[in-house]
Write a structure and sequence with these properties.
alpha/beta; Rossmann fold; 2 domains; three-stranded antiparallel β-sheet; 13 helices
Length: about 350
Amino acid sequence: MPSDISNLYPVPYRAQLTPGAVVYYHEFISSHEARKRYWARSFLGWTTLHKANPNAGHYAIRDLGRLGLVKQVITQNVDSFHPRAHSHLIPTLELHGYLRSTVCISCHNEFPRDSFQDELARLNPAWASFLREVVASGALATENPDERHARGIRTNPDGDVDLPDAPYTTFRYPACPHCLAQPPLETNGTRAVVRVDPEGAWVPASTAGILKPAVVMFGESIAGHVKLAAESAIDRAGRLLVVATSLATYSAWRLAKRAKDQGMPIAILNIGGVRGEEAFFNALEPDPTGGQGVRVDMSAESLLPALVAELERSVADGKRAPRHPPSSQRDGETIFKDMLS
């Protein structure tokens, strides 16, 4: 039966962010200075984020799709790794959007983040020079947060780079090119104002043309059509596989709860605690095959490729995955294989 995979962003890390590290949606929309701070940090972090690639876990999900075991992926990740790893095999619903684009809050047109990065570099030559120096120093090459902190750089989970005491007020960002060429109508029927400085940077006299990342920011609601699509994907599924998430955000937890309320078998693969996990497993009858539910505390990057290898061996043998006798020593991939078979 089809499974849905929800590979969600590791939200608990966000609780560790220092004050001011996050720019909330209402702040971004209403404050020119907040947007300067956001885009400056995003400008510094984009180089590293853009070079990052899907890992073995993402490609294992692709292989589960190839085996006919995964039909849909719902993800809160905004890094586009799932579409890159398996878009030709498995459709991906990006619950919280994606960083690969910017979107205008006025006309809602989207634009490639790469092109936006080029514009940021053009409008902020001193920042661009600093970024080149940072990249050359290797400060952004290390994933060790202590090493980055020692070099005066703090990287947040969403990929942006924070520089304490940096002159964010000098940073400039472009206006929406569509609104600049054709200003939209305001709600009162008058034409909005979109103005830029001589080099093309958005200026506060404007009443429209603000670009934001095409993600659901802190304090922003998920679009209604995305919510409905996620619920529909759950309703079409026969089983739910939850990967690498604590389900800490309500948007993630409610989908798992929806599946549980429908009596759907649920497997959770995550290192560490999961929000309300007792509600998913406490009422289950003892079942050594994991047919009703599975909970494994392992990394997806290590377990999922092993699971795929086990399933491929079963396919090569021309048989369904065997049901194993009870054993406290059974491997995580064996339990998952039984549930998916």
